[in-house]
Design a protein that fits this description.
Structural class: alpha/beta
Helix content: 25-40%
Strand order of the largest sheet: 3-2-1-4-5
Largest sheet: 5 strands, parallel
Length: about 230
């Protein structure tokens, strides 16, 4: 029981670094954590070339614009999958030296046993906070929309019931109900889709983006975004 309490409420009264993808789950986790703790910055992992984020394939300029609008610095590094863990731990250790006590992540369904984030935070001497952990998926995405966050779908898995026409859609209550009617997890926790947040209560100003032509790769379709 102690583990559950610590993971859900781990940011309370602590200085934290937040794992950040620019999508809805990491944004909601950051929002909740900023209500109860002190943010130090955002961790963003990039692909080897440093041109896109590892998680959502976003350009670094767009992520930095999000961070600037929120008012937080970015801790970033490029890594392959082979050295991802060691590079990530290096960023955690850097954040710890600057005062971080806790890592915040936006995971909902992380198992207790074998949790990767628990492993790396222990390695770096930090605690772990997952404020969305074990939340009902519909409740999580509904809370996100109710708070006034604006996000658009930028990646869809066409083999999991998603369509090219879903790209560019804004997460609204109506669209969430449509996804559910199609048998799709409204949080996309099965890898059905990814989002990019462009406005909301943490932002000093909205993020202006330019949309480009849809790109397909295997079962996936992408809506490339660039900062205007």
């Amino acid at each position: 029981m102690d583990t559950i309490v610590n993971w859900k409420n781990g940011a309370h009264g602590h200085t934290f670094i937040a794992s950040f993808s620019g999508g809805k789950d990491s944004m909601l986790a950051l929002y909740k954590s900023m209500k109860v703790g002190e943010p130090l910055g955002l961790i963003v992992m990039l692909e080897e070339e440093g041109k896109r984020s590892r998680s959502h394939g976003m350009p670094p300029e767009l992520i930095r614009a999000q961070a600037e609008s929120i008012g937080l610095p970015v801790y970033t590094a490029a890594a392959s999958w082979d050295d991802y863990e060691s590079v990530f731990i290096g960023l955690l250790e850097q954040a710890k030296r600057q005062g971080a006590e806790v890592l915040v992540t936006g995971d909902l369904d992380m198992p207790v046993d074998g949790c990767w984030h628990d492993k790396v935070t222990r390695n770096a001497g930090l605690k772990l906070a997952m404020p969305l952990w074990e939340m009902d998926h519909y409740e999580a995405v509904t809370e996100f929309v109710n708070l006034g966050f604006v996000s658009i779908l930028v990646t869809v898995n066409l083999s999991l019931g998603m369509r090219e026409e879903d790209l560019g859609q804004t997460l609204t209550h109506e669209y969430i109900k449509e996804l559910q009617a199609r048998g799709i997890d409204p949080c996309g926790e099965g890898g059905e889709f990814h989002t990019t947040v462009i406005n909301g209560p943490l932002f000093k100003q909205p993020i202006p983006v330019q949309r480009f032509s849809i790109v397909k790769h295997g079962d996936y379709a992408f809506l490339p975004l660039e900062l205007l």
